[in-house]
Automatic annotation (TrEMBL):
Pfam families assigned: Glyoxalase
Organism for this UniProt entry: Halanaerobium saccharolyticum
The protein's name in its UniProt record: VOC domain-containing protein
Domain of life: Bacteria
Classification via InterPro entries: Glyas_Bleomycin-R_OHBP_Dase, Glyas_Fos-R_dOase_dom, VOC_core
Domain VOC stretches: 4-122
Length: 123
């Protein structure tokens, strides 16, 4: 099952301090805005999201329809089809936002150790 581009979304206490830290490790701002309390940073194929005050835990994130450069893919498994495949495997889902037959949508699953996994399609 192809889930799309992978990143980790980090819950940070101070976005500017975290930005500086990751820049010192070679990451560069790839998206987001400090005034919106989040940044997406990239180092090679590694993507991290820094989010201040948006959620309680770090989150594993997959973006169907995108490659690691956030370029749209011509062919991909739509989030609604992924949702069905995951439900067919009897995996519990939370925070479903899957309106319409195509376009943006998302849902969350929780791994056996309590780590949230966000499946978040933007296109």
């Amino acid at each position: 099952m192809e889930l799309g581009a992978f990143s980790i979304s980090l819950n940070v206490k101070d976005l500017k301090v975290s930005k500086d830290f990751y820049e010192n490790l070679g990451f560069k701002v790839f998206g987001g805005k400090i005034e919106h309390n989040y940044l997406i940073m990239k180092n090679g194929d590694a993507l991290i999201g820094l989010f201040e005050g948006m959620f309680d835990k770090n989150i594993l994130t997959f973006n169907p329809g995108w490659n690691q450069e956030a370029d749209e893919l011509v062919e991909f498994l739509d989030v609604r089809k992924l949702y069905k495949k995951i439900k067919d495997k009897k995996i519990e889902t939370k925070q479903e936002s899957l309106e319409g037959e195509k376009g943006p949508g998302s849902f969350v699953i929780i791994d056996p150790d309590g780590n949230p996994i966000l499946i978040d399609q933007h296109i």
